[in-house]
Amino acid sequence: MVYQPALQDSASDLWRCVYASFGKETFASPSFKGFFNNGLAVISSCRGMLDPRRLGLIEDCLSRAQKEDLEPNKRREDILTAAVLLKSA
User: Fold this and answer.
1) pTM to 2 decimals?
2) E strand spans, 1-89
3) 34, 46 in Cβ contact below 8 A?
């Protein structure tokens, strides 16, 4: 059997990266980067499972979350919004 990642896995990874961002290194920590990149990879592999409008909202949230000039809590909020949209898909 081969495990296929699902949207729920991506949402969980995004939650984990928010928790990882509260450490000393915040968004530069290897844990944050690992969870965030894994979440993005799962989303890209599950594109066909999402409504195009919802996918657009999720991608907008995640692109804003990558902007380093935003305050940390706003970046976390965008990541959590994307996670909630994925969980409810």
Assistant:
1) 0.88
2) none
3) no
CA-to-CA distance for 33 and 31, rounded, in angstroms? 5
Burial of 56 (0-12, 13-18, 19+ CB in 10 A): exposed
Q: Which of 25, 10, 21 is nearest to 89 (CA)?
A: 10
Amino acid at residue number 70: L
Please give the Cα distance from 89 to 79 (Å, whole number): 15
pLDDT digits (tens, 9 = 90+) for 16-58: 999 999 988 888 889 999 999 999 998 888 888 888 899 999 9
CA-atom Rg of the chain in angstroms: 13
**Higher pLDDT, residue 7 or 76:** 76
Residue 2 has pLDDT above 70, yes or no: no
